[in-house]
């Protein structure tokens, strides 16, 4: 037992020794936080070294930057479709500024807004560079710029502004070249080069040139307000142009003044005084050369927008050499003259605005644009690209073409024009506030009837309508382009730009192919690289849809007031009018006349061109800023169209459209519903020829006019003993279809005769009783017969016999025929009044029944109430009033 205790003590001591050793070992290990800190520092060092290495790697491939790069402004030629230069960006004669002539107020303004540490850094802003690098790592692209004035100068001189070029490599090269430039030039030299390099809107480069262009003064004479404005313009030259965008220019100018005050370059009093000055104070008028540039301004604006949208190249500052456009100079000059000169005497005043788009239907190329009237500023609002209410011009796009494309409706398709409401219960109006009953699709479109259009539209799946619209480049028919929903009123009313409208109709003109409209075909860079900007074409609809729509729209362009206004001898054309309207409350509020509208539009096309025209006022509620029938201002778009289309059609061959094999012209009986072929008795006046999609034409023959013939009337016979002859007469038999022939079948005794006359003479008849019968053959039928008899005697007295029926049925037939053929009329003329009454009664009953059904449908109120207000507002803009 003691031995066990002793062993226990020994084990205890050994355990204590082991524990002490463990404690010593624990004290020797480093804390975890130190290890983490060390790891982080190591990563930072490695990242720094890696960054330095990457920077060095990128910088090693930086392009050379010469003095010419820093001082030259490379002009960009815009060439037309024939390859001839019509405009040059940067073509203005620059006035380079010398360092000693730069006023301190301008230098302070530029530094305050662009680079407040300009005089202290070495060419780069480390904070900005870090922000850009972090953005590249986390977002995959550069966030922010961090660009100093030196870096901006480098960018303007040797780099493009394409979005894909804004990467970490480009940023590193830009920074490296900025560092080099700072070692070679003084701050004042760098600032001077920047001042001479920047783009200042209206084709002006350099602030010295801009000072003379806008204010007519030397740069050294700029006031504080003027210097602040010019210093702020390079960020967005066109947006901050004091002539075209005075409000935005004022905001930008004031930001610069505020930064100058915060940077202690001006006092608060000086800031407030400068802010009180209008940005348009001191601006001078343009010279004649600039006025000539206005002819092409709308087109040039479209060119510049396309380049930015499709390439991210800045047309003003990038290394573009040549821009190849699709411009037709002759067409462009004609558009400008029609809109602006007094030669055509179309517009009532200088305030009315207009927009025009001319497209080659076979290529989608934009040939000419009219962005507005009486504009005196370059790069002003391009109304050809702006969305505008275009009324019923959307009907073929949103309703009739989809109905043919997806439902294979014919141009004869029957629809009831009767009181109708939206699903919300809101009433839909026609332009004349009346209804026509049963009409065809052709009449509904040509006469621009809203109710039938809506009814046809409701038969088409909305998804099909939207697909069709997307196929012709239309994402939205609403005033707000971001609203891509298809609303009920879009069946007959909507908003589009003139460019998009003319492009969509071009698809009808060329047989169903859509090409996105484009002004620029390609861009050539200074390096010789070519960038192709021509879009790909695609089949947007079947050829039968395009042809059938065109056939109906030819009726618009060839009849009525529109036909008179747009007529061009020898030029087959089609087109559609469109007229939005004021809301009722706006008419009351602004005392607008009943027939006044805010704008009108017309789009027409040939086998060569599609031309869309809009006319209206920017301030539509000002007194007199409306269009009406009384002064013919609602005819203006059609007059503009005619003046342009007639001119551009002179130099091309104008052909009519050829019917594709997928379309079949079919004669149908008018009023048949569904369509039916004419019967043998259908009057020619009731036969119409309409277009059907092949294999969808009607096969059933109408029986509406197939009625049994009634017996003839007025049959009489008398014997003239002196002449020894029997004289036979009867009444004229008249069919309801007067153009059908009647043949009389006469039987005298055992002899039969056919004649088209209404009398017959039998010579030397035999004695005894002579029986005579008469029937009619017409329309493939033979009528019941009537008969009479006469006694042939040798007595001296004249025998005669009144006509009598041979049997009771013949008497009934004779009585019936007297009603049909008016046998008792003194002039022996019969008529088809009874048939016409029956036809009228039948037609009236049929139409009445259909209208009652339509009324019953219209009276049912939908449970869907969410669109009530929307439909109410849009419906008041739907009246496309045809003159």
From TrEMBL:
<feature type="compositionally biased region" description="Basic and acidic residues">
    <location>
        <begin position="1"/>
        <end position="19"/>
    </location>
</feature>
<feature type="compositionally biased region" description="Basic and acidic residues">
    <location>
        <begin position="849"/>
        <end position="875"/>
    </location>
</feature>
<dbReference type="GO" id="GO:0008360">
    <property type="term" value="P:regulation of cell shape"/>
</dbReference>
<dbReference type="InterPro" id="IPR036950">
    <property type="entry name" value="PBP_transglycosylase"/>
</dbReference>
<dbReference type="Pfam" id="PF00912">
    <property type="entry name" value="Transgly"/>
</dbReference>
<comment type="similarity">
    <text>In the C-terminal section; belongs to the transpeptidase family.</text>
</comment>
<protein>
    <submittedName>
        <fullName>Penicillin-binding protein 1A</fullName>
    </submittedName>
</protein>
<keyword id="KW-0808">Transferase</keyword>
<keyword id="KW-0573">Peptidoglycan synthesis</keyword>
<dbReference type="GO" id="GO:0009002">
    <property type="term" value="F:serine-type D-Ala-D-Ala carboxypeptidase activity"/>
</dbReference>
<dbReference type="GO" id="GO:0008658">
    <property type="term" value="F:penicillin binding"/>
</dbReference>
<dbReference type="InterPro" id="IPR001460">
    <property type="entry name" value="PCN-bd_Tpept"/>
</dbReference>
<keyword id="KW-0511">Multifunctional enzyme</keyword>
<dbReference type="GO" id="GO:0071555">
    <property type="term" value="P:cell wall organization"/>
</dbReference>
<dbReference type="InterPro" id="IPR050396">
    <property type="entry name" value="Glycosyltr_51/Transpeptidase"/>
</dbReference>
<keyword id="KW-0645">Protease</keyword>
<dbReference type="InterPro" id="IPR023346">
    <property type="entry name" value="Lysozyme-like_dom_sf"/>
</dbReference>
<keyword id="KW-0378">Hydrolase</keyword>
<dbReference type="Pfam" id="PF00905">
    <property type="entry name" value="Transpeptidase"/>
</dbReference>
<dbReference type="InterPro" id="IPR001264">
    <property type="entry name" value="Glyco_trans_51"/>
</dbReference>
<feature type="domain" description="Glycosyl transferase family 51">
    <location>
        <begin position="83"/>
        <end position="260"/>
    </location>
</feature>
<feature type="compositionally biased region" description="Acidic residues">
    <location>
        <begin position="826"/>
        <end position="838"/>
    </location>
</feature>
<keyword id="KW-0328">Glycosyltransferase</keyword>
<feature type="compositionally biased region" description="Polar residues">
    <location>
        <begin position="779"/>
        <end position="793"/>
    </location>
</feature>
<dbReference type="GO" id="GO:0030288">
    <property type="term" value="C:outer membrane-bounded periplasmic space"/>
</dbReference>
<keyword id="KW-0121">Carboxypeptidase</keyword>
<feature type="domain" description="Penicillin-binding protein transpeptidase">
    <location>
        <begin position="355"/>
        <end position="608"/>
    </location>
</feature>
<feature type="region of interest" description="Disordered">
    <location>
        <begin position="778"/>
        <end position="883"/>
    </location>
</feature>
<dbReference type="GO" id="GO:0008955">
    <property type="term" value="F:peptidoglycan glycosyltransferase activity"/>
</dbReference>
<comment type="similarity">
    <text>In the N-terminal section; belongs to the glycosyltransferase 51 family.</text>
</comment>
<dbReference type="InterPro" id="IPR012338">
    <property type="entry name" value="Beta-lactam/transpept-like"/>
</dbReference>
<keyword id="KW-0961">Cell wall biogenesis/degradation</keyword>
<dbReference type="GO" id="GO:0009252">
    <property type="term" value="P:peptidoglycan biosynthetic process"/>
</dbReference>
<feature type="region of interest" description="Disordered">
    <location>
        <begin position="1"/>
        <end position="28"/>
    </location>
</feature>
<dbReference type="GO" id="GO:0006508">
    <property type="term" value="P:proteolysis"/>
</dbReference>
<keyword id="KW-0133">Cell shape</keyword>
